[in-house]
Structures are given as C-alpha cells and as structure tokens.
Amino acid sequence: MQPQVSVVIPTYNRRVILEKALGALGRQTIDPRFFEVVLIDDGSTDGTDEMVAALTPPYHLEYRRTERRGPAAARNLGIQLARAELIIFIDSDIVVNETFVEAHRNAHTSDNLIGHGPVIHTDNLDDPTSAEFKVTDISRAFFATGNASIKKRWLIEAGFFDESFVEYGWEDLELGIRLRRLGLRAVKVPGARGYHYKRRLSAADVPHWCQRERERGHTAVAFYRKVPTLRVRLMTMLFPVTFWLDSLITLGGWPDRPATKRFLERLDQRGWHLALRFFVRLITFHWYVEGMREALRPPGAAGKSPGRS
C-alpha cells in the first residue's frame, strides 16, 4: 500500500532512545499501513544496525546506513527515499505520543502548511512521555525538524537541506527561511507531542556540550553568510555586544581552568543541579561565542579546543 505519511528520522549513536522512539511509532492510532518510517543511520558505531535488524515493527521501516555526512545529508536522503506526499521530521531522541502521526496528517487541511508539534524535554528514559510541557519548551522556530511536517514537493522546490552544514546546528532553520519565501504558513499541531530525551546533566558531559556549542557557533556564522539579514543576526546573536559580553563574563579565563572542572564535579557530587546548570550554561555560551570567533577568523588561524586554555 502506498503510504500517506513518511516519517523521516536521521540518527547517529542513539541506539537506546532510538529503540524507544521506533517502538512508540508502532503504537499509533492510525493504521500502520498508512505510514512508513525512513531511518537514515549517519554512520553510527553503537550497534544501531543490529538493533534495527532485530525489530519487527507493524509499519514499513526503510533503513539505510551511510558514511558520516551530517544530519542535512541524512535528511535529504530520507526525503528522496520517502514514498508519501506528506513528510514528518523527528529526531532520533524523540519519543512520540499515540496520536502523533494522525494529528500531523489531519493538520494539513491545505497544501501550503508546515505542521509544528510541541517538543517536551525530559530526562526520564524509563517513561519519557510522562513529562509535562514547560515554559522552556516553547519554540518560535518557523521550521524545526525536531517535530515538523510538510509536503514533499515544497522541500524539493526549496532545494532540500544545505549539505554544507556538516557540523551541528542551524541547517533546518536555514531551510525554513527558504520555505517562508515560498509562502508557506506554520500551524500548531498540539495532538502531535514529541518528548525529547536528554540525559541529566553531569560534570562529565561538559566537554561534549562545549564541543557541540562550538560547532553551533561555526554553523551560525555559515548561516549568516548564506542569509545576511537582521533576522538571522538576531537568531544567532551575531553582534559585537555578544562578543563583548562573553569577554566580560569569562574574565581571567575561568571556564578553562582546572579549578573550574573540579568545582563542577563538586556541584555534581553534592546534587546541586540548578547551580551546575547555571555554570554550565555560562561555559557553553562561551564556547558558542568562541565557535563564532573561530569561524570569523581568517583561514589558517588557529583556535583553541574545549578544555584547553
């Protein structure tokens, strides 16, 4: 049967939560014959392929494994493989509710729509869908692939995701600008809830988050160079005051000092998670700004790495 909906999911080394995400898609209110899941494995090394091979989902699952090329290229391959007219994008660390696919399908009452479902953050791996919606879960993005649906033809007309975005961040928002120019309109889909799992922050995770924010700083500059508008400057915070603020709050280079690492470890050990999140937010903001600095430097100029002063 030709599916009515294709759910496109790129993944990289998220085996445990991905298995839950695929399981949730098997418990939909819509007949599983009416949708398919297109899973693009962007070079995972955690046994994702073995996990997928052992599954017997009620829906058609199209699984493709590629060399590591980044989420933009993975989503583009998913679009090309999708057989349905309507495409839903989710990330591989998002577990959806039972009405997810049906709600997205029903939301497309006209041709020129982008459906947006709520993304609810949770650190509860055992029961992700038990989380409640919070003020911090509000998103104003026009097109964000954590939980969005759109007709395939618009993605083709807009020119797909820009595969030059290899590092983390901004590739979906950049495509969103091109989709907005085509005259599409965003609508909310409250019945399509996605629960975004993130492991509770620990001091040991800080280098990972710093590196990710550094990459997001690189792609922020690439985004602005492609779309040099005030809207993108505001989205990326690419203003002189941002660099000045970072220099002010990191006086003395404290984010990179060994004493700071020990301080974060003590906060973690004592269970002072609010304080830990506060200081990690300052540190990761610094690395986002440092990533922008690196991207703005002339070619060949060296930059530092997270954890190295």
Write a brief structural summary.
With 309 residues, this protein is an alpha/beta fold.
Uncertain segments: none
Supply the number of helical segments.
Answer: 11
**What is the terminal separation in angstroms?**
58 Å
Side by side, the strands of the main sheet go: 3-2-1-4-8-6-9
Classify the fold: give the CATH topology of the largest domain.
Spore Coat Polysaccharide Biosynthesis Protein SpsA, Chain A
Counting structural domains, the number is: 2
Q: Per DSSP, what share of the residues sits in E-state strands of 2 or more residues?
A: 15-25%
- Give the biggest sheet: 7 strands, mixed
CATH superfamily of the largest domain: Spore Coat Polysaccharide Biosynthesis Protein SpsA, Chain A
By CATH reckoning, the class of the largest domain would read Alpha Beta
Mean pLDDT: 95
Describe the global form: globular
Assign a percent range to the helix content: 40-55%
The succession of helices and strands, N to C, reads EHEHEHEEHEEEHHEEHHHHH
Give the class from helix and strand content and strand pairing: alpha/beta
Number of strands: 10
State Rg. Answer: 20 Å
